[in-house]
């Protein structure tokens, strides 16, 4: 019997697919809704290859309240939601902020309304370290703790911080309303997971990030340079007050990140904390030049780059203080930056067309052998 039934919005995407896999491996039944705007249904096949179980899938946009309603009706045992579905490019959000608010904030409101209608009580939200903005404006806030004041510097980050407030207000209202009615209220809970820079792929080399169009994150861009799909990496600024002039980020292996979502979900269901924010990061900062060097080593060749002007909204340092998640969720990163680079290279070198090609037979055979063992 399943531990529980969880709806995952955006579950065919990069982090969503890895989290779906982690939940299936730990006994949950997984129902995915995804518009497939920036993802592929092929990820469902890869998840099934890896764990022998297949998520239930519906092609539904998170802003489609009627469509969501039908999914919830079809799965009366749903007790929790993990919410990934969102547009996620900082630069694009500055060019088209209304679309970001419509989908990210509006979609979340639609989701919460349907959760309320069907009495689904727990939500784990895929937030972002971008909600903190430029933390150098405060003393002693790097690495960044959860009590750091919120102050995003771009529309994408502002949609994330707005959603956090919406979820907090919603969960607190549900608790208060149920409490006034003299009924148990502790089962309404929300986790706000502020994570830093996900990277890497599954160690098997058959599940990874397959961005449609231009990637917006450093590691998949480096992957495209390494496979020859892109001539060079653009480095946005080398005049930051860092050890080599480039911006500092906290990179977390996507497998560790997926385990963080599992830990947060279990914590909500077991501890009933109300609404709580947790940073998911390694606590170790890495500059852009250091990341280029690490991925060049994994790929066995020096990757080309060009320094250009800084992007609007970029900040010097986003490094996590993950102590709260370490202590309260009993979670910490186990994989290194080197692991992330090696696993990503295995993915892109074997699957240069992502999910638009079959994985090499040798990788599939290795997966089958590991499952048989």
TrEMBL record:
Q: Per its UniProt record, what NCBIfam families does this chain match?
A: galE
- What are its cofactors? NAD(+)
- What is this protein called in UniProt? UDP-glucose 4-epimerase
Record text on subunit structure and interactions: Homodimer.
Which enzyme class?
Answer: isomerase
Which InterPro entries does the UniProt entry name for this protein? Epimerase_deHydtase (IPR001509), NAD(P)-bd_dom_sf (IPR036291), UDP_G4E (IPR005886)
In the record, biological process GO terms are: galactose metabolic process
Check the record and name the Pfam families matching this protein.
Epimerase
**Enzyme Commission numbers on file:** 5.1.3.2
